Recover the amino acids of this structure.
């Protein structure tokens, strides 16, 4: 299964995005980790691989210069611990 097909089957993750065909892996990781269930996370890891998902998460979960990130604090905490152990 491709990332595009997976996201197409999960409209509750992409309801606010107009162009669903050009969703980047970074945006997909953010949406799934923030709003998906555990089955969605497992499928994402199966599609992209745990190292790629961890790499994207680590890069995008860093706070920007204005001290902001798009990940919820509890998501950041959980997946920092998760990827530290499993990736």
């Amino acid at each position: 299964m491709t990332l595009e097909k997976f996201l197409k089957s999960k409209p509750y993750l992409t309801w606010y995005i107009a162009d669903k065909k050009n969703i980047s892996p970074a945006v997909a990781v953010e949406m799934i980790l923030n709003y998906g269930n555990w089955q969605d996370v497992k499928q994402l890891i199966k599609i992209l691989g745990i190292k790629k998902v961890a790499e994207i998460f680590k890069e995008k979960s860093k706070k920007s210069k204005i001290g902001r990130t798009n990940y919820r604090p509890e998501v950041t905490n959980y997946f920092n611990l998760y990827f530290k152990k499993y990736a």
Observations:
- Residues 73-86 form the longest helix (14 residues).
